[in-house]
């Protein structure tokens, strides 16, 4: 891993934390907020690729468990993990990894110069929604005692906003890559 890799990981960790400055929005169904931080998770995977994207998210998780107020609403601490949002937070790591892997495999050719917007969008949907929800939904169900149906209904609420975030992340990654080819790694 190079110094540039570490700088990019730290930069996208900072982007995710900065997006947490926007206040979380509560939904009625489950005690998990809508947050813009998922946009940063998809951006990290789509722009940086699997290893560095997952690294940026892992750094956010590390700062969280160390007690720093890096999550939306200024939250942090080890207690987040066994709580209702803990699965979603941990799911950001494989979510960014899968987003980046799909971008690397299907969206980018010729060292980053040829890139597909549609493939970036599909990668963000699969990694940023499906993978994150696959960890988050059962975790919320187990930690709250709510049934899987209710936990999944919460995710259905998130899916509307997260699809828009996937579109934004895909457009940004696609355009960044055209003007400044970063090979996904
Ligand atoms: O702040 C936390 O403790 C983690 C928040 C997790 C929020 C999840 S991530 C996927 C889904 N989309 C959202 O906007 N919110 C939830």
Structural features, described:
With 185 residues, this protein is mostly helical. 69% of the residues lie in helices and 2% in strands. The protein is built from 6 helices and 2 strands; from the N terminus they run ααααββαα. Strands 1-2 form a two-stranded antiparallel ribbon. The longest helix is centred in the last third of the chain and has 32 residues, at 148-179. The radius of gyration is 16 Å and the shape is globular. Bound molecules: biotin. Residues 32-35, 38, 71-72, 75, 80, 85, 88-89, 132, 136, 158, 161-162 line the site of biotin (BTN).
Read across the widest sheet, the strand sequence of neighbours is 1-2
Specify Rg, calculated over alpha carbons.
16 Å
Strand and helix order: HHHHEEHH
Q: Would you tell me the structural class of the helices and strands?
A: mainly alpha
The total strand number stands at: 2
Shape label: globular
| Overall helicity | 55-70%
Count of separate DSSP helical elements: 6
Strand content: under 5%
Which ligands appear in the coordinates? biotin
Q: Ranges with pLDDT <50 over ≥5 residues?
A: none
Largest sheet: 2 strands, antiparallel
Task: Return the average pLDDT rounded to an integer.
Answer: 95
Distance between the termini: 10 Å
């Amino acid at each position: 891993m190079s110094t540039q890799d570490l700088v990019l990981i730290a930069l996208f960790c900072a982007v995710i934390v900065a997006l947490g400055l926007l206040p979380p929005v509560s939904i009625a169904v489950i005690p998990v907020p809508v947050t813009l931080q998922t946009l940063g998770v998809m951006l990290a995977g789509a722009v940086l690729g699997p290893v560095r994207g997952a690294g940026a998210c892992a750094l956010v998780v590390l700062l969280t468990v160390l007690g720093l107020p890096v999550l939306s609403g200024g939250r942090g601490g080890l207690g987040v993990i066994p709580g209702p949002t803990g699965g979603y937070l941990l799911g950001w790591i494989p979510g960014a990894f899968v987003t980046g892997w799909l971008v690397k495999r299907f969206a980018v050719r010729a060292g980053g110069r040829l890139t597909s917007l549609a493939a970036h969008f599909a990668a963000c949907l699969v990694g940023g929604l499906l993978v994150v929800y696959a960890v988050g939904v059962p975790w919320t169900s187990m930690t709250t005692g709510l049934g899987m149906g209710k936990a999944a209904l919460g995710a259905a609420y998130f899916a509307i906003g997260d699809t828009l975030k996937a579109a934004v992340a895909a457009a940004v990654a696609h355009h960044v890559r055209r003007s400044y080819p970063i090979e996904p790694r």
